[in-house]
Write a structure and sequence with these properties.
The complex is a heterodimer. Chain A contains ten helices and one strand; from the N terminus they run H-H-E-H-H-H-H-H-H-H-H. By secondary structure, chain A is mainly α. The radius of gyration of chain A is 21 Å and the shape is globular. By secondary structure, chain B is mainly α. Helices cover 65% and strands 8% of the residues of chain B. Chain B starts with a strand and ends with a helix. The chains are: A mainly alpha, B mainly alpha. At the A-B interface, strand 1, helix 3, helix 4, helix 5 and helix 8 of A face strand 2, helix 1 and strand 3 of B. Strand 1 of chain A pairs parallel with strand 3 of chain B, so a sheet runs across the interface.
Chain lengths: 338, 98
C-alpha cells in the first residue's frame, strides 16, 4: 500500500517538475526575445523601455491603485495562473506521466483557456483605473483574434481527419500530428495547414515589439506593483507560449522519434530526447517565427485601407478552411473511385 | 474517480481539481508571502470607487447585469453562499440533462 502511494506521489512530483521546467522554458525564451529586440532597437537608436525582471517584480512591495477591489485584484491572478497550469498538465509531450490526460480533448483545452482568461480579466478590471480597462480591452480583442483561427484550425483538422477515416477521437490533440498525414496529402491540404499555422502564430497576443507578450508594458501602470502584477505578467507569457506550443504541435514530426507502438513504448532516453526536441522547437518558434509572422501579416495588410485591415485575418482563415475542405473532397473522390 | 462524461469529452474532475487547487495554493502562498515580507501600501476597499466608462457592449451588459442581479446579493448575509449554491445547482442541471 505504502509502495503504491509512494510511487504515485513520485509520479506526481515528476509531473510537476516537468510542468515547472516548461514554465521555465517559456520565461527563458521570452527573456531571450526581449533581450534580442532591445539589442536590435538600441543598434537602430530607438529608445527602449526599462528591462523586465521577474525577481524584482516579486521583491518590491505590493501596491494597488486607490480604486482597486482589494481581494479580487490580489488573488484572481493566482486563480488565472492555476487554471493555466491545468491546461499545461493536459498537453501531451509536456507530461508523459499523465497528470490529467495526455491526449487532451481540444474542447477541454479551450474551456480551460477561457477560464484562465476570465480570471485574468476579473483581476485587471478590478483595478478600476482607466489604464487597466484599456489593458483589458486590448487583451479581450487580442484573445478573440487569436482564439478564432485556433478553433477554426482544430475544427477543420478534425473534419479532415474524419473524412480521412480516423479510428480514434478526432477532437483529441493526439490525432493532430499532421506531419504523418502530410506525406500523403496533396499541396492544397498542406497549404491549408501552413496557412492556419501562419494565422495563429501571427495573432499571438502581443502588446508591442519591446514588451513581447507581457500583459502590462514595462514601466507603465506604475501604481500597480508587486506579486499580483508579476503573476499576471508570467501568466500572459506562459499563455502565449502554450498557444505557440499547440500550434507547433500540429507540425512537429513526432513520428520520427516515436516508435510505432505509441507513447508508452518509448524508452526513457527516447522520451527525454522527444521532450527536449519539442520544447526547443517551440521556444525557437516563439523567438524567431512569431515576430516574423507578425511582420509578414503587417506587410500584407499595408496596402489595404485602414478600416478593413483587421478583416484580412478572417479572410485568410476562411481560405485555409476552404483549402482543407477541398483536400477532404479530393480524398473522398479518391476513395469513391477506388 | 469522479468523472463527468458527455458525448464530447470525459472530464476527470478529481485530477483537474487536484492540479487546479495545488497550483492556486502555490501562487496564493507566493502572493501572501510577498505581502508579508515586502509589505505594501494597500488601500482599504471602498464602496463604489472610480466608475470606469463602459465601452464595449459586453462591458455595458455586464455592469447592467451586475447592478440588477449580483450587487443586491452582496448586501444580504451569506449572499455569497446562496450564489455558489445557485451556480452549483445550475451546473448539475446542465451536466445531467445535457
Amino acid at each position: 500500500m505504502s509502495a503504491v502511494l509512494f510511487s504515485r506521489m513520485f509520479d506526481y512530483f515528476n509531473a510537476w517538475l516537468i510542468m515547472g521546467s516548461t514554465l521555465a522554458i517559456a520565461l527563458a525564451s521570452e527573456k531571450a526575445y526581449l533581450l534580442a529586440s532591445a539589442a536590435i532597437g538600441r543598434r537602430r537608436g530607438v529608445p527602449t523601455p526599462e528591462r523586465w525582471s521577474i525577481r524584482s517584480s516579486f521583491m518590491t512591495e505590493v501596491s494597488l491603485p486607490e480604486s482597486a477591489l482589494l481581494k479580487c485584484s490580489l488573488y484572481c491572478p493566482a486563480l488565472a495562473f492555476a487554471s493555466l497550469m491545468t491546461l499545461c498538465a493536459s498537453i501531451p509531450l509536456c507530461t508523459y506521466i499523465a497528470v490529467i490526460d495526455n491526449g487532451a480533448d481540444v474542447i477541454q483545452l479551450a474551456l480551460s483557456m477561457l477560464l484562465s482568461e476570465v480570471f485574468a480579466l476579473f483581476s485587471i478590471y478590478s483595478l478600476r483605473t482607466e489604464y487597466s480597462s484599456e489593458v483589458a480591452r486590448a487583451e479581450t480583442r487580442s484573445v478573440i483574434r487569436c482564439m478564432v483561427p485556433l478553433s477554426a484550425c482544430w475544427a477543420s483538422l478534425a473534419s479532415f481527419l474524419i473524412q480521412n477515416g480516423l479510428d480514434s477521437d478526432p477532437f483529441s490533440l493526439n490525432s493532430f500530428f499532421m506531419a504523418e498525414h502530410m506525406l500523403s496529402m496533396s499541396w492544397w491540404g498542406i497549404a491549408g495547414v501552413l496557412l492556419f499555422i501562419f494565422c495563429i502564430l501571427s495573432q499571438i497576443p502581443y502588446r508591442n515589439v519591446f514588451s513581447g507578450t507581457l500583459l502590462f508594458l514595462c514601466g507603465e501602470g506604475a501604481n500597480f506593483r508587486g506579486a499580483p502584477r508579476g503573476i499576471l505578467q508570467i501568466w500572459s507569457v506562459f499563455r502565449s507560449f502554450i498557444i505557440v506550443a499547440l500550434a507547433a504541435y500540429v507540425l512537429f514530426p513526432s513520428n520520427l522519434l516515436r516508435g510505432s507502438n505509441g507513447i508508452l513504448g518509448i524508452s526513457w532516453h527516447g522520451q527525454a530526447l522527444n521532450f527536449v526536441a519539442f520544447w526547443l522547437s517551440v521556444s525557437l518558434t516563439r523567438i524567431v517565427a512569431v515576430p516574423l509572422c507578425r511582420r509578414a501579416i503587417s506587410v500584407i495588410e499595408r496596402p489595404l485601407p485602414r478600416r478593413s485591415r483587421g478583416a484580412l485575418l478572417y479572410v485568410l482563415v476562411v481560405i485555409a478552411m476552404a483549402l482543407l475542405w477541398y483536400e477532404g473532397v479530393i480524398l473522398s473522390q479518391e476513395a469513391a473511385a477506388y | 474517480m469522479f468523472r463527468i462524461a458527455t458525448g464530447f469529452f470525459t472530464w476527470d474532475v478529481y485530477r483537474w481539481a487536484l492540479v487546479f487547487f495545488s497550483a492556486a495554493l502555490l501562487s496564493w502562498a507566493c502572493v501572501a508571502l510577498c505581502l508579508k515580507f515586502c509589505g505594501g501600501g494597500l488601500f482599504p476597499e471602498k464602496k463604489g470607487g472610480v466608475e470606469v466608462q463602459a465601452m464595449f457592449p459586453a462591458e455595458r451588459f455586464v455592469t447592467a447585469f451586475a447592478k440588477v442581479f449580483v450587487l443586491p446579493w452582496n448586501d444580504l448575509p451569506a449572499g455569497g453562499l446562496c450564489g455558489i449554491a445557485a451556480l452549483f445547482i445550475l451546473f448539475v442541471i446542465a451536466v445531467f440533462t445535457g
